[in-house]
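User: Can you write out an input/output pair for a complex, sequences first and structure second?

Assistant: Here is one pair. Inputs:
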Amino acid sequence: MVGFVTLGAAIMLYRSKLLQATAIPKAMAAAKERTEEVHVRGPANAAVTLEEFGDFQCPPCGAMEGPLQQIERDYASSLRVIFRNFPFTIHEHAHEAAYAAEAAGLQGRFWEMHDLLYREQSVWAKSSDVQSLFDAYAGMIGLNLERFKKDVSGEQVKAKVEEDRKRGEALGVRNTPTIFINDESVPPTSLNPTALRAAVDAAVKQKTRS
Amino acid sequence: MKNNRATSKPGGNAIAISRSQIVIYAIVALISLAGLADATYLAVQALTGETMVCGGSPDCFKVLGSPYARIGGVPLAFIGAVAYFCVFSFAILAAFGYARVRRLLLFTVWSMFAVTLWLLYTQAFILHAFCRYCLFSAAMVFLLAGLIVASRSP
C-alpha cells in the first residue's frame, strides 16, 4: 500500500516536473505570433526570440532586468524580447503593477512602464499607497492620466494579465522569471547574467549557422 | 563716489547705475544660470519621457508625474527654463545700464516668485510631496527676489 502511494506520488511528482517549462509547443508558439497584444521589443525578423514570464514585484525578476536589457542592447539586431505577466498573489502589489503596465500598453507605453516598474521595484513594493505612485509613474512617462486611471481598473487589462498567466501555466511556468529562448526553456540554473548571455549567444550562433 | 558709478551706455535706454547694482545684476545672472540648468534638465527629461531624474524618490515622481507639472501638455520646467533665460538676459542688459529691461526683470522675477509660492503650496498641501529639483528652483527664485529688492534699495 505504502509502495503504491509512494509510486503514485513519485509519478505525479515526475509528471509535474515534466510539465514544468521545457519547451513551447509549436502550436502555442504560433498562437503567440497571432496575438496582437503581445509586448515585443526588438526587430520582428530577429534570429532569436526571448520570452520572459515575469512578476514586477519578484526580486529575482528585478535583478535580472538590468543584465537582460544589456543583453538586448548588445544583441540589438538579432534579439527580440517578449514579456508576459505572471504575477504571484504572494506579492502584495504584483497584480496592480501588471495592470499598470498593461494600462500603459493601451497607450503604447508598455515598455516604458515595464522598465520603470522594474527599476523602482524596491520603492513601490513597500509603498502603502502604490496606486498613487503608479499614477505618478504614468504621468512621468507622459500618459493621459485620466485614461490610465480608467484603464488600470478596467476589465481589459485584467483579461490580458489573466491570458498571460494562463499561457504560462499551460507551459508549466512555476517560478519567475521563467525564460524561453527560441521556445526552449532556460534552466533555472542558467538564470544569471553570464549564463543567460551565453544562452542567447549560443542561440544566435546556432541560427546564423542554420 | 567716483568708484560708485558705472559709466552709462550711449543711447536713450541707458542710464548710469551704481557699482553695487552691477554686482547684484551679475549675481542675478549667475543665479538664473543655476536655475536655468535645473529647469532645462527637468524639461529635457520631461520632453523625452525619461524617468531617471526621480530614481528612488517616490516624492519626486509624485510631483513631476502629477498633472500640476504640465500646463496644457507643456512641462512647467520648460516654461521655467524660458523664464530663467529671460532673467539671465535682462540681468545682463540691466548690468550694462539698459533702463527698460529693469522693469521687465522686475516683472519676470516677481511672476516667478508668485508661481513658486503656488507650486510650494501645491507640493505641501495638495500633493503632500516635495521634489528636490523643485525646491532647488524655489531657492533660486527666492534668492533672485531678494537680490531684486536689494538692487532697488538706495
